Amino acid sequence: MTKYFLNKREQSGHGCNHEVHREDCYLAANIKFRRYLGEFPSSAEALAYAKVTYPDADGCAHCCPEINHG
Questions:
Q1: Is the alpha carbon torsion for 70, 60, 5, 14 positive or negative?
Q2: Where are the alpha helices (DSSP H) in the chain?
Q3: Fewer CB within 10 Å of terminal CB in the chain, N or C?
Q4: pTM exceeding the 0.90 threshold for the entire prediction
Q5: Three-state DSSP class for 51?
Q6: What is the SS3 assignment for 43?
């Protein structure tokens, strides 16, 4: 299981979405407004959970490229 976080601020210039990051992502460490999503067996499950609150959520291109659609 991996811990996932969500950037609560929209990413300007990146499709204006809220990005889901793995805990070990170098970009997640610099996010000032992040929300802990929980532990999930896959990034797809973390994204599905994030979309409940943030329908525009997308995966980080660096740590979750398999769920990045941006």
A1: negative
A2: 43-53
A3: N
A4: no
A5: helix
A6: helix
Strands 2-7 and 58-59 come out as unpaired
- pLDDT tens for each residue of 11-61: 665 555 889 999 999 887 677 788 999 999 999 999 999 999 999 899 999
- What six digits make up the tokens of 14? 């990146």
Residue-level pLDDT at 55 = 92
Residue with tokens 């991996």: 2
Residues 6+ apart with CB under 8 A from 48: none
Tokens describing residue 29: 């460490």
HSE, side-chain direction, 13 A CA sphere, residue 66: 7
